[in-house]
Automatic annotation (TrEMBL):
This is Nonsense-mediated mRNA decay factor SMG9. Belongs to the SMG9 family. PANTHER family: NONSENSE-MEDIATED MRNA DECAY FACTOR SMG9 (PTHR14270). GO terms for biological process: nuclear-transcribed mRNA catabolic process, nonsense-mediated decay. The keyword tRNA processing does not apply. SUPFAM superfamilies: P-loop containing nucleoside triphosphate hydrolases (SSF52540). Keywords: Nonsense-mediated mRNA decay. Coiled coil: none annotated. The lineage of its organism: Eukaryota, Metazoa, Chordata, Tunicata, Appendicularia.
Length: 305
């Protein structure tokens, strides 16, 4: 696959005919599906491109990142869901931002336009049929906000039903709203039927909390443990797989941390612009390479005990 293909439009509708049909077959299910969620501008497209094998110095990424002009306008880059298949048979799903003010603005504008057309229709109806208008008009911000929250929940719940690994991307620090969205979408997740047809078994994806652009303070053992405890407390009653081999990286990169047989799936990625060669802190290239190896070594099917 040379470039990414959009499989779901911004309204969360499947594109017909789907561009994925030329690459996927029902008889061939030996794929590892990796999705990502995060708010606007946290680096989702860049991270997924790097997981797909793109070098950070390359000018062409698999998923188009947010440009300088787009950042100045406060707009988002990815609309809907885009797919890219790597040579390692890994399906990467890059998604539009959740809880995004840019998407909310688009929804309000579209809602306002639909309300204006509806208002003209009622004016025409009132003039010719002589019926007093009792409602209608342009919806307010609340309707657009509710619609965007529902769309965010639908997107996350859909990823939980199709992905083996979900990367929850935070920017510099844990995002409470993002974790709350994740736990709420878990309640809406449809039951995923296992490949062998076993009943009463629900497969859950492995969730990895990735803190992008982590500063050096987060690599201090006390700060890392505090960050881990915060996310673990928020996910206390969740049945998602938040503990696994993704936490094994800290054995080699953070030797001062206490040993844990079931480490929490939290991963920190430093800024790509941080060129300090201090051996006490892992470099950006080493971190991305480690994360990619952990993703490729993950289980494709995991059963919730």
């Amino acid at each position: 696959m040379k470039r990414s293909a959009r499989i779901i439009d911004p309204n969360l509708h499947w594109r017909e005919p789907s561009p994925a049909l030329g690459f996927l077959q029902q008889e061939n299910t030996d794929f590892l599906v990796v999705g990502v969620i995060g708010q606007q501008g946290v680096g989702k497209s860049s991270l997924m491109s790097l997981l797909g094998g793109t070098n950070c110095r390359d000018k062409r990424f698999h998923f188009r990142p947010q440009g300088f002009e787009t950042k100045e306008k406060g707009c988002h880059m990815t609309a809907g869901v885009e797919m890219f298949i790597t040579s390692e048979r890994m399906i990467l799903l890059d998604t539009q931002p959740v809880l995004s003010t840019s998407l909310l603005d688009e929804l309000c504008v579209n809602d306002r336009e639909r309300g204006y057309v509806k208002m003209l229709f009622f004016m025409f109806w009132q003039r010719h049929v002589k019926i007093r208008r009792t409602g209608g008009g342009a919806p307010d911000l609340a309707s657009g906000l509710s619609l965007h929250q529902v769309q965010s929940l639908q997107l996350v719940a859909w990823l939980m039903s199709v992905c083996h690994v979900i990367l929850v991307l935070h920017d510099q620090a844990p995002d409470f709203n993002l974790v709350r969205l994740l736990t709420t979408a878990e309640m809406l997740k449809p039951t995923t039927t296992p490949p062998d047809g076993t009943d009463n078994v629900d497969f859950m994806p492995e969730v990895v909390f990735v803190i992008n652009r982590s500063n050096r303070d987060l690599y201090q053992p006390a700060n890392f443990i505090a960050c881990e405890q915060i996310i673990a407390a928020l996910m206390k009653y969740s049945k998602l797989k938040v503990r696994g081999h993704f936490g094994s990286w800290r054995k080699n990169l953070m030797l001062e941390l206490p040993k844990d047989e079931h480490p929490f799936n939290i991963f920190m990625v430093p800024s790509a612009n941080d060129r300090c060669r201090n051996p006490a802190y892992p470099s950006f290239e080493l971190t991305i390479r480690t994360l990619r190896n952990l993703v490729l070594s993950g289980e494709k099917y995991g059963k919730l005990d």
